[in-house]
Design brief:
The complex is a heterotrimer of chains A (about 260), B (about 260) and C (about 675). With about 260 residues, chain A is of the alpha/beta class. Chain A contains 11 helices and 10 strands. Chain A has a domain of about 160 residues: P-loop containing nucleotide triphosphate hydrolases (Rossmann fold, 3-Layer(aba) Sandwich). Classes of the chains: A alpha/beta (about 260), B alpha/beta (about 260), C mainly alpha (about 675). Chains B and C meet through helix 4 and helix 5 of B and helix 6 and helix 7 of C.
């Protein structure tokens, strides 16, 4: 029984089948890639997993329990964390507030009456906890910075940190390399890999950057035209002719 | 990898402009808010020339297309159309100058009927009877959409929408056609049809800037190819050599796990 | 026998109500179409409609009644000339430049215009509002009664209104269907960028559609005067509110974007209105109320809450939506410690000086002004909480303030209980009302929340306040005492001022606590990105409902204090819904994000017109509305608020120093990346 699993997901938009009977599973402690060319259905699948879309058929389960009909926030509280392709941060907040808030949500310690009695102010222990995580992500000392002052790469790390503060059991990364240059991508991947090894959550990486997926993940799913065309250990998937054809077109597949 | 990245400054690589190119981008930078999308991109498309713009997802291809048609104003550098500075010019002037853009995805007005979509495009330069003639030509070029002329465009299939988007621009024989990810999400057979049409207008003298992720068709159609990687031009040269260069840059790290 | 006679009577009444309803509905339809036209083409939810309609109507009466122009030429100038030019000016000077702004800031701008435009008009054309005028329509002998089929009476005005509206609707349909401009307008609505790719200048098309919708507003302005009771005695922009509310209900049926739905919705609502008045029995108080002024508000609220299309509404399907950059984030708000200490010392010095002057030297007038400033600061802090922290707009804070004021009054008068208890009870009631009101609409958020709360404010104003258990009986809230508690008598001016300041400080501290604690973080998170907030487990609507209730309670406390200060509930002077719009805009414009901003707005609201305009410059009171309008417009460019903007500019040096540091950090990050990123 996998931790996060999608079984037979089918989703149609106005007559176009965006996903066709897709199965995918992620376990705690593993790194899984999901690739496919533009328009293959990656984002749709991602949204079905997270609850932004309801699949027309099939089910999503988490830890053996069906979550197909749960709203986004319930899934988050079960332990599904995510990042965003177009960075979604809380403008007007400091870096540390992002983490602090995620922590409060997770532990359920935020209540209006506490705020009004002055008990809701950040406590030293909480601040320390946040700063420790920031430190380990290479953002040490930046807790008080306004979020707007960060570079894109740093912003992505804050998204990861925010997700981690909710103590997720699986984290879904939505195209973390987009908007980053190659060096920044590599740096991000290194940090991610380290944290994942330390904390042992499951990781699903939705990416178009084949190189990142090749170096970072253990298993990979490949989508094209809404169908799962192959799945297996990443090194094998990368050798697959069908995969190369999906990315490069028939030209290369035909000649190589 | 070595061959692919040893190219000198891309601007120097571009063929010396004996005649003024239809479109020229000089050291263009572009960004969407905090997202830097293009870094110092220089390229040109000459009269009747066909150029394939290749690269993986997120490499900046679509942004190049958007800058080239005025949809996105560059944050640095210049865009020239027929030798005139169009850098700060709005998109409709590009269209009037004959630089037309078929954007990626569902590039039609979803609430309009097929006929209304086309009429909007044709009525800019034509009177009522001219529009009628143009509609007739469009339906001649793309028989599948002729049968659906009163259908709402949003309900067409992906391939039909793409044909509609092309019909809009092809009747007029533009100076330069910028086509973004035409094969996206299309069945292979439909892609073949779409590219057959592109070949016809290339032969009629329209310059092409073809943005593609699937390179096979694009390379067969074009003379020249430009590879983008992380918002910068990583290689450019004859289309015939592009596949090798691109294959290397997309998949060479797969070698690590193989060895 | 009797049954069939009765049935025949019912049928006849139904038919009669139908023919009465159509002209009323035609008015709704006209206004609704104008709304939809503006909203569709520019994304502006144009509450300035009332002002546009007023200007055309006032021009018409100025020309026709006072200067004896013939009807046709007065109509030509007022409707065909003035209205489109006004629309063009609005589009060119204001709305074009705020294209990327949020729907909420556009709403604030239109509120500013609603207040400022009529006043500006009155100043320019020396329009005499005192002059009584008859509600003359644009139809000669409009009150002549005809009988349809020999029995159903309709006036010539009503027939004309109906015919003109139907003709206008048909003309609009023809325009959209058969003309190039119409096609282009519809194209711009779907995607301005796609339209530009077709070689069409989308800005020109926008101007055209603003002119068109303004023409509609002007036409409605002159056409509706004779058939609208609220415009019967004096022509004021607020007179259009009841129609606007019904029209909004009609427009909401088509999610503010469908013109046919707006037209048929308007006609249908007109007929429903008259049918209700005919058939619903009057013996029950609530049912009787439903036939009267309550009906439009109830309809609007019900449609917003229950109409499924609104809940299903999704963001526009513009295929090139991704082209626009994300809206710019507010500038970073970091301030150095030294700067903070400096400003605190200055503020302390200032308040000390004001305090010494107030308690040592000021006369009664100024003490009263200062007390008013303090009390309005408290009320405005409720806007800081909901709009500043919560990022949503509610237009009924004024109603909550009124509830607090009436609470204090009722408790003191009916049961002789301390006004403080009454005020707190009012606050509790306001919080409860806020929660009940907001739960169904909070999920919709944005513009729908603003509309629903406006409907509630007007409902309170037109209906509830007339009940004795709300607004008191004959003497409408006279005799609110000042409190006495903890053994201190607060009835003297000075003591009451001290009490008000104490409450202001308390509320301010509570707000800062909220801002810095979990609730504040939740609100910042929701403002920043609702999707991301939900992805870490926030239940967005719940946080907002809580904050809305808190804000309602604060407003009620302020309202209660105001009643005690004035020793009466000055409902008309203080708690009119339009005053509430004014409040919102002044707070948002001066800076809704901070407690200081709220206090500055309170002081500005009370002191500025009196001191600066009147005493220093000797200007007419109307100028404050005009200035206010300009402030609202400037808000579009500085959404953080004018004072905050000024403050930031004064910190330019610090900012620059900060900017030098930021790239250094980014470079450090990238540098680190480059090290690890080297190819093996």
């Amino acid at each position: 029984m996998s931790l996060l699993a999608a079984d037979g997901i089918t989703k149609r938009f106005a007559g176009i089948t965006a996903l066709d009977d897709v199965h995918i599973a992620v376990d705690e402690g593993e790194r899984v890639g999901l690739i496919g060319p533009n328009g293959a259905g990656k984002t749709t699948l991602f949204n079905c997993l997270l609850g932004l879309l309801r699949p027309d058929a099939g089910s999503v389960s988490f830890d053996g329990q069906s979550i197909t009909r749960l709203p986004i926030y319930r899934r988050a509280r079960l332990g599904i964390g995510r990042t965003f392709q177009r960075v979604e941060l809380f403008s007007g907040s400091s870096v540390r507030d992002h983490l602090l808030f995620a922590h409060r949500i997770r532990s359920g310690t935020g209540a209006l009456w506490k705020d009004l009695l002055g008990l809701g102010l950040p406590k030293p222990a909480e601040i320390e906890r946040c700063d420790t995580l920031l430190e380990s992500l290479g953002l040490g000392g930046m807790g008080d910075e306004p979020i707007e002052a960060l570079s894109l790469g740093q912003s992505r790390l804050v998204e990861v940190a925010r997700a981690l503060m909710t103590q997720p059991r699986v984290v879904l990364l939505d195209e973390p390399s987009s908007g980053l240059d190659r060096a920044e991508t590599t740096a991000l991947a290194d940090t991610l890999a380290r944290i994942q090894t330390e904390q042992g959550f499951g990781l699903l990486l939705v990416e178009h950057d084949v190189e990142l997926v090749a170096t970072f993940t253990e298993r990979t799913y490949v989508l094209n035209f809404g169908k799962l065309i192959t799945h297996g250990p990443t090194s094998e998937v990368m050798r697959d002719d069908e995969v190369r054809a999906a990315y490069l077109g028939d030209f290369v597949a035909g000649t190589s | 990898m070595t061959d692919a990245t040893t190219t000198a400054d891309p601007a120097e690589m571009a063929p010396a402009p004996l005649v003024i190119p239809v479109l020229e981008m000089r050291h263009v930078n572009a960004a969407y808010g905090p997202f830097r999308a293009l870094f110092d991109v220089s390229l040109s498309v000459g009269e009747g020339e066909t150029v394939a713009l290749l690269g993986r997802n997120g490499a900046g291809k679509t942004t190049v297309a958007r800058v080239a048609s005025g949809l996105v104003e560059p944050t640095g550098g210049e865009v020239m159309v027929d030798g005139n500075d169009f850098t700060k010019t709005r998109a409709y002037r590009y269209a009037k100058a004959g630089v037309v853009h078929v954007p990626e995805g569902r590039a039609v007005f979803p609430d309009f009927s097929v006929e209304e979509n086309l009429t909007l495009a044709f009525s800019r330069t034509r009177d009522r009877s001219g529009v009628r003639d143009a509609l007739a030509r469009a339906f001649e070029l793309f028989p599948p959409i002729a049968q659906r002329r009163r259908q709402i465009a949003g309900t067409l299939s992906g391939g039909e929408q793409r044909m509609l988007a092309m019909a809009r621009v092809l009747v007029e024989t533009p100076r330069l056609l910028i086509a973004d990810e035409l094969s996206l999400g299309l069945a292979p057979i439909v892609t073949d049809e779409v590219y057959a049409v592109l070949a016809r207008i290339r032969d009629a003298g329209t310059a092409l800037l073809i943005v593609e992720q699937h390179m096979g068709h694009a390379l067969a159609l074009c003379d020249r190819a430009i590879l983008l990687d992380h918002g910068a031009i990583s290689w450019q040269g004859p289309a015939s050599e592009a596949a090798q260069a691109a294959g290397a840059s997309l998949f060479d790290t797969g070698g690590d796990s193989r060895s | 026998m009797t049954a069939s006679v009765l049935a025949a009577g019912v049928v006849e009444e139904t038919i009669r109500a139908f023919f009465q309803g159509l002209p009323i509905g035609a008015g709704f339809a006209l206004v609704a179409m104008s709304f939809v036209l503006t909203y569709k083409t520019s994304g502006v939810f144009n509450l300035a409609f009332g002002a546009q309609a007023f200007i055309s109507a006032a021009t018409y009466f100025e020309l026709h009644v006072r200067r004896d122009w013939p009807i046709w030429s007065a109509v030509l100038v007022a409707v065909v000339l003035v209205a489109p030019v006004l629309g063009l000016l609005l589009e060119r000077l204001i709305f074009r430049h705020v294209h990327a702004a949020s729907a909420v800031s556009k709403l604030v701008i239109s509120l500013g215009l609603l207040v400022a435009l009529p006043e500006l008009f009155k100043l320019i054309v020396d329009y005499n509002r005192e002059q009584p005028f008859g509600a003359v329509g644009i139809i000669p002998d409009g009150t002549t009664v005809y009988r349809l089929f020999g029995r159903y009476p309709v006036t010539r005005d009503e027939i004309a209104a109906f015919v003109i509206v139907v003709a206008a609707a048909l003309a609009l349909a023809a325009l959209f269907r058969y003309t190039r401009l119409g096609l282009r307008i519809r194209a711009v609505v779907q995607s301005p960028r796609m339209t530009e790719l077709n070689g069409v200048n989308a800005d020109w098309v926008s101007s055209g559609s603003w002119m068109l919708s303004s023409l509609f507003a002007g036409l409605a302005g002159v056409l509706l005067v004779p058939t609208t009771p609220s415009l019967g005695t004096v022509l004021e922009p607020t007179g259009y509110f009841p129609i606007v509310i019904s029209a909004l209900a009609a427009a909401a049926l088509g999610r503010l974007v469908s013109l046919p739905a707006a037209m048929f919705g308007g006609l249908a609502l007109g007929v429903v209105t008259t049918q209700m008045r005919t058939h619903v029995p009057r013996d029950n108080v609530i049912l009787a109320e439903l036939q009267g002024p309550a009906l439009p508000y109830v309809m609007l609220f019900a449609i917003i809450v229950f109409w499924p299309a609104i809940r299903r509404q999704v963001a526009g399907a513009d295929p090139l939506l991704g082209v626009s950059p994300p809206p710019p984030a507010l500038a970073a708000t970091s301030r150095s410690r030294g700067m903070t200490i400096y400003t605190r010392i200055m503020a302390l010095a200032f308040f000390t000086a004001v305090g010494i002057w107030t308690f040592g030297y000021a006369n009664d007038f100024w003490i009263s002004r200062i007390t008013h400033s303090v009390i309005f600061s408290i009320i405005f802090l409720s806007i800081v909480v909901f709009t500043g922290l919560g990022g949503q707009i509610a237009l009924c804070q004024v109603t909550f303030a009124a509830i607090g004021a009436f609470g204090a009054m009722q408790f003191a008068q009916r049961w002789d209980i301390s006004v403080i208890v009454g005020m707190l009870a009012g606050a509790a009631i306001a919080a409860a009302v806020g929660a009940v009101l907001s739960i169904p609409v909070m999920r919709l958020g944005g513009i729908w929340l603003a509309i629903a709360t406006l409907a509630f404010a007007l409902f309170f104003h037109d209906v509830l306040v007339k009940y004795s258990w709300v607004g008191g009986s004959l003497f409408h809230g006279r005799g609110v005492p000042r409190p006495e508690f903890l053994g201190v008598d607060f009835s003297s001016r000075e003591n009451f001022l001290i009490l008000s300041i104490a409450i202001l400080v308390l509320v301010g501290v509570l707000i800062i606590l909220i801002r810095e604690s979990s609730t504040g973080m939740a609100l910042r998170a929701l403002r920043g990105s609702e999707t991301a907030a939900e992805s870490i487990g926030v239940i967005s609507w719940r946080s907002r409902v809580i904050v809305f209730s808190v804000s309602a309670a604060i407003a009620a406390i302020g309202g209660g204090l105001l009643a005690m200060e004035e020793r009466l509930v000055g409902y008309e002077a203080n708690f009119d819904p339009q005053t509430g719009l004014f409040w919102l805009v002044i707070v948002v414009v001066l800076g809704a994000r901070t407690v200081e901003g709220g206090i500055q707005a309170g002081v500005a609201f009370v002191i500025f017109p009196e001191l600066v305009l009147h005493r220093w410059f000797g200007l007419d009171g109307a100028w404050r509305f005009v200035l206010f309008g300009f402030a609202a417009i400037s808000f579009a460019r500085h959404p953080e608020g004018l004072l905050e903007h000024g403050k930031r500019r004064s910190q330019a040096l610090m900012q620059r120093a900060f900017a030098r540091r930021a790239p250094a950090m980014a470079a450090a990050g990238a540098g680190g990346a480059a090290e690890t990123g080297e190819e093996p």
